[in-house]
Give the backbone structure.
Amino acid sequence: MANIMYWEAIQRAHDEEMARDPLVICMGEDIGVAGGTYKATKGLYEKYGPLRVMDTPISEGGFSGLAIGASFLGVRPIVEIMSVNFAWLAMDQMFNSAAKVRYMSGGQLTAPCVFRAAGGAAHQLGAQHSARMEKVFMGIAGLRVVTPSNPRQAYGLLKSAIRCDDPVFINEHELMYNMKGEVPDGEYFHPLEGSEVARAGTDVTLFGYNISVHWCLKAAEILDKQYGISAEVVDLYSLSPLDRDGIRKSVSKTHRAVIAEEDEAPVGVGAEVIAIINEECFFELDAAPVRVHSALVPQPYNHTLEKAAIPDHEDVVKAVLRLFGKA
Amino acid sequence: MKIEDKKRVLREMVLHRRFEERCYQAYIERKIGGFLHLYPGQEACCNGVMEAARPGHDYVITGYRDHVHAIKCGADPKEVMAELYGKETGSSKGRGGSMHIFDTDKRFMGGYALVGGPFPLAAGMAKAIQLKGGDEIAICFLGDAANNQGVFHETLNMAALWKLPVLFVCENNLYGIGTSIERSTAVIHQHKRVAGYNIPADECDGQDIEVVYEHARKAVDHVRAGNGPFFLELMTYRYRGHSMSDSRGYRTREEEEMWKQRDPIFILRDRLIAEKALTMADFEAIEKETDAYIENEVIKFAEESPEPRVEDLEKYVLADRESQLPWLTGKAA
């Protein structure tokens, strides 16, 4: 096991896959000569050259479509969207071309294209650089959506996404690129479907994904030490499809659920997980499930307002205490 | 063009015309649903360019007015008609419809219904050709109105920057849906718009197939020789409305009549007659044979083909699950 950073894990996945297959290429803004905004493609330009590590113009719609067209002919492009906010400009091609082409061609064509984007709210980046957009992507038929919460997942999910014949959107997080974690030394393919029990517990399930897994883990620690509540943390690394079995199994064990999401609540991950709980195991519930989520505002610049808009582990703790009638 | 080729293409163009007219009739009879965009009037564009290119070898992509492009690339008219009928035997197994004809065996890479959407897809296919080192080219057929989308400019920039082997064919039929080019576009002659990207461009009459062919040959040769993209503008006209719901109230009947005097099929027919390679009786026989073929084979096949099974509703959303298990479960060998 190597203890490496999230960006290093992503870089390693690129490097291994590009060394293996000459048709794996990557493209995006500043990913080549400049080495990538988050260093996720560091050193690849020098190693693989400009034909395979493409510094693109700032044309998200154009280069996303170009990647999809290349994937029609067997190329495996990894597209970096510098900030997920810019993905709005790429969505026409991602949704209308990549996600639908297999269906509307009756299975003749597929777009095995990987889109990675730095998502999440960082620090005071304002309304147009702080969007959480996972809920937009997870509602699209024909597109897989995964979101790594640690370096092991960041490495293994990218490896699997490159090999998979479906288009995959990988939602990363701006605040997590320097996070360290254990990654297997040997080649590792993380499942693109399912969920992971990040911490076992018996009294309540805390559902998180990406950064909110860490809020949940911290909250579980506090709940255990200060309140004697045993919380299970389920990491929903696959947002599309969501793991119905994993959600049912955990809630059937704990009978209580809190969903923590960095996104705003309407039409979001929490809403979807609660719908699945209702459909799969409603009569297992001892209390109504609760969402912990951002305020429905364009992200404010002011530090205090920003902090107020985004939840954290304390909000998860409070939500659990309310569930148990302790707050 | 050689006489024999011209005679063959005349027969093909008659098929293309009669196929589309038969679609119109089937639509009125409610055999075809959805939107239907027909090609009559523009036949010399697709045929002239593809005579200069290599159908089935070069990768072709276009918008929603796509039946004739697919057939010209080698798609079976029976399967195209079955697609319009929504049948399982259709070229996209009834999942695509008129706007989404695909035949990837023939390298017809599809019809797409977002105006301008195919631009970057075509450049991407050219990128793949460049990486793999083949002698194919990518050909993108779109209308003039697509050039008002942002991706047009984004794609031209990247195609020129990376010298991609892609030919952009602009079929300038003077209307974007129901808005004339004068009312939507600051520049009528579209080839002028690409000069800013250092892409060589040409413009010619899109009604005379021999003119199209001569210009297309230079364009295709330029791209195939590895000189990067080329933009070819063909001045043409669609006889019917944008789609079936269009009563053409935005243009005059005089204008339509003027263009019908320059009908691409009649231009070629009359030239062959003048060259003593064809008689009017020959032409009438071609029309008759074509109609019989469409009725007895194409329509019959579409009518008699089965519907897709409802159990297969979700088939083709994602890749076949069994083949993807190592990546879905993480249990790679």
Q: What stands out?
A: Chain A is about 35% helix and 20% strand. The mean pLDDT of chain A is 97. Chain A touches chain B through 55 residues (CB under 8 Å).
